[in-house]
Amino acid sequence: MICDAKFGGLLDIACATIPSEFANWLMVDCFDAESSQLVFPGRGKVQLTAQSVADILGLPDMGETVRYELDVEAINFILDKYNVQRGFAPKIGTIVNRVKENKEANDDFLRSWLMLAVSTFLYPPTSMGISPRCYPALVDLSKVKDLNWCQFVVDQLKDASSKINKKNSVRGCIQLLAVLYADSLEVQKVQPPPTKPRIAAWTRKMLDIVIKEGTNRDGSFGKSSSRL
Questions:
Q1: If you ran DSSP here, which 8-state letter would residue 10 be given?
Q2: What is the pTM assigned to this prediction?
Q3: 3-state class of 32 per DSSP?
Q4: Angle value at C-alpha 161, between 95 and 42, nearest 5 degrees
């Protein structure tokens, strides 16, 4: 079901975690929301596009815009499906357990899994609840594969970047930026396989080598000898 919805690339993530300091550096110091680029002064720039997201995550990069907004009908639909009291949102932990306990390949499993994919990976919220803004895109599961999820990821990274100074947290798909950065470098000690989506090629061990090679003596990132 997940592959039919064209989200199968997320089943092959080789690196589930990114060092927090490195994640902050990429998002706060390097990502320019206006140009949608990772910018490394004196070294170069790496463009983030829907196509690059497709290469890295394997999500649909064509189709209609993902509706990520508050919609009363969608909210009522989800609350009724999940038996949640009005004014509240399902907790991420509750949905995780729901997925684990569901032994059938049905709509409930797919919708719950997609909620987690959006709320814990593509655009994690600052709370422990599922953002109701993701509901409209998940009401009609037959249309999920026809939405431009790659552009959604780009747009949400840009939105998160613009709000960094307003909230003391880094949001957005940081693993995407990490792989985009790693794939742009020439590091002789690391030879990732040509696997696609690229999120399946980069393990934590390989990323750690890339991060180490790009770390200055003072502990800061962006070592100039790491060639783009």
A1: G
A2: 0.90
A3: strand
A4: 130
| Residue labelled with tokens 């709370």 | 127
* Residue at token pair 């783009």: 228
Tokens of 1: 């079901």
For residues 214 and 185, the answer to whether their CB atoms sit within 8 Å is: yes
13: its two tokens: 């993530």
Q: For residue 226, give the nearest of 37, 212, 198 by alpha carbon.
A: 212
Q: Per residue of the chain (228 residues), give pLDDT as tens.
A: 999 999 999 999 999 899 989 998 999 999 999 999 999 888 889 999 999 999 999 999 999 999 999 999 999 999 999 988 887 888 999 999 999 999 888 999 999 999 999 999 999 876 788 999 999 999 999 999 999 999 999 999 998 888 776 444 567 899 999 999 999 888 878 888 999 999 999 999 999 999 998 888 888 887 755 556
